[in-house]
Write a structure and sequence with these properties.
alpha/beta; Rossmann fold; Glutamyl-tRNA Synthetase, domain 2; Ribosomal Protein L25, Chain P; 3 domains; seven-stranded mixed beta sheet; 15 helices; elongated
């Protein structure tokens, strides 16, 4: 994050705020906020918004608030509150003591609405939701005044009190701002400020039955907390005049300023909360923490680190408008983050048995193998080497194609950290003709680390001992969607889903050294990519499951067993 701070001079939001602060509009310190609605889980786009608010606060030696926009009891839940707090802290943007709830300001927001009514700037309207839409007009046609717009202040105060006391049915009345039904900005055409909702709130229970709309609550909450800059994504730009109108009509001194930044999207990834909910509730994915989702929970379960996500956001830099970033950048960043951290291990996805006919039957040799070729400080480990081994089935070709430099009949390769071996015989199933094992010989003079300088081989392949290994299951991931176009409705997901977005490989053979690994521990499976142990229900499983975070440098299909073919 410090590297990104050095680039602040190039950051449009930083430059904008710096210029504005030169006029000294505030007599208080910088304060920003991230205001999620607790009706779902954070995703990569949320992380960008969090980063933007935290960055600006730190850059001007200010504070960063987390404030829950919990003004709709029909959708919100304490589960989401706890998850959001945990995710933000995991990402490294800890708000500390500055965690707030919009519902705690309910009385102040109600009194603000009452003051607008008494100024003649708000009125109770009895139009139905369909009528409200009709009266609002279109982008080409002005709206029409509600027949209830000219109610007296006294009548509006009484009716609003009835709404608050639960004396009128839900949907029968709303409180609206009195602005301008002919405004070219649809948000200024007498927007709804309050509506009636009879439902239990997760914090205030049944204390309230009227709830403010976000556009009304948002500026008031900012003013209460002393926010200086309300940094929002670009879709709220047209809402800014209403934000300013509310604060102006309430006579707010040194009001907060709303400023907008671009919205982040990724190729092949769903970041819309509405569409994410459809995927989860429709059973198309394995919950909010499905590793194919861009939720913070999904990215964490897949194996992404908080450092890699922050670095990814820093690499994107300043976004002014809607921007779609190629997900390959996120893949690149996690590779860079893990290449000197992850322990390299040998894992065989599609095993082919190899018998070294000239190796002693009962001998077990412990061979030292480096834990990370990029980082010597991670040291070495000892790997048991035996007469019977397993290699990748793709590492042998009976009739090699051009450029294939692995094991062939009569050919030699080096086993990683071990010896040269030569294939002497190919054993096939008499009925199917499938290759079931290879008989090879090893050259004891070619042991790795002995300074052997004799003949050369072009290929090195990985292996595991047949007697000293463990079986695990592996999840291989590709992009979730076949194209960038989202479905028009929730029933059209099947046609958009990539059928190969998850490929499960059973009975993968690994070095036994990972038997006691902790969840979320990261490994590099040689030639297959970076993996981490799946944290979901790991204690109840009969074997470990590893999620592939990202392939090495090749495409998903190439590293999924087609290389060299």
């Amino acid at each position: 994050m410090d590297n990104f701070k050095e680039k602040l001079a190039e950051h449009h939001m930083y430059r904008l705020i710096t210029e504005e602060l030169e006029k000294q509009p505030f007599n208080r310190e910088m304060c920003t906020r991230f205001p999620p609605e607790p009706n779902g889980y954070l995703h990569i786009g949320s992380a960008y918004a969090i980063h933007m608010n935290d960055l600006i606060a730190r850059s001007f030696d200010g504070t960063f608030h987390l404030r829950f926009d919990d003004t709709n009891p029909l959708k919100e839940d304490l589960e989401y509150v706890n998850a959001i707090i945990e995710d933000i802290k995991w990402l490294g943007y800890d708000p500390g003591e500055h965690i707030y709830y919009g519902s705690d300001y309910a009385e102040q927001i109600y009194n603000a609405a009452l003051s607008l009514i008494k100024k003649g700037k708000a009125y109770v309207c009895d139009l139905t939701s369909d009528e409200l839409t009709d009266y609002r007009g279109t982008l080409m046609e002005p709206g029409r005044n509600s027949p209830y717009r000219n109610r007296s202040i006294e009548e509006n105060v009484e009716l609003f009190s009835q709404m608050k006391n639960g004396d009128v049915p839900a949907g029968s009345k709303v409180l609206r701002a009195k602005i301008d039904m002919a405004s070219p900005n649809m948000n200024m055409r007498d927007p709804v400020l309050y509506r009636i909702i009879f439902a239990e709130h997760y914090r205030t229970k049944h204390e309230w039955c009227i709830y403010p709309m976000y556009d009304f609550a948002h500026p008031i909450q900012d003013a209460i907390e002393g926010i200086t800059y309300s940094l929002c994504s670009i879709e709220f730009k047209d809402h800014r005049p209403l934000y300013d109108w509310v604060l102006n009509e309430l006579g707010t001194a040194q009001p907060p300023r709303q400023r907008e930044f671009g919205r982040l999207s990724l190729t092949g990834v769903v970041t819309s909360k509405r569409f994410l909910r459809q995927l989860v509730e429709g059973g198309y994915v394995d919950g909010w923490d499905d590793p194919r989702l861009p939720t913070i929970r999904g990215l964490r379960r897949r194996g992404y680190t908080p450092e890699s996500i922050r670095r990814f956001i820093e690499e994107i830099g300043s976004i002014r408008s809607q921007s779609t970033v190629d997900i390959s950048l996120l893949d690149h960043v996690i590779r860079q983050d893990l290449k000197e951290k992850a322990t390299s291990v040998m894992a065989v996805m599609r095993p082919l048995k190899v018998i070294l006919t000239n190796y002693p039957e009962d001998k077990v040799e412990q061979l030292p193998i480096e834990n990370n070729s990029e980082n010597e400080t991670l040291g070495t480990r000892e790997v048991p080497f035996t007469r019977t081994l397993y290699i990748e089935r793709e590492d042998f070709m009976e009739e090699p194609s051009k450029g294939f430099h692995r094991l062939t009949p009569g050919g030699e390769v080096r086993l990683k950290g071990a010896y040269f071996i030569r294939c002497e015989d190919v054993v096939k199933d008499p009925e199917s003709g499938e290759i079931i094992e290879l008989h090879c010989t090893y050259d004891p003079l070619t042991k790795s680390g002995t300074g052997f300088t004799g003949r050369k081989v072009k290929g090195t392949i990985h292996w595991v001992s047949a007697e000293h290994n463990m079986k695990v299951d592996v999840n291989l991931y590709d992009k979730l969607l076949l194209d960038e176009e989202l479905p028009k409705d929730s029933e059209d997901w099947i046609s958009k889903m990539n059928p190969d977005s998850l490929v499960q490989v059973k009975n993968v053979l690994m070095e036994a050294l990972v038997e006691h690994v902790d969840p979320e521990h990261k490994f590099q499976f040689l030639r297959h990519g970076y993996f981490c142990m799946d944290s979901r229900d790991y204690a109840a499983r009969d074997r470990m499951v590893f999620n592939r975070i990202v392939p090495l440098k090749d495409s998903w299909k190439k590293s999924n067993g087609n290389e060299g073919k």
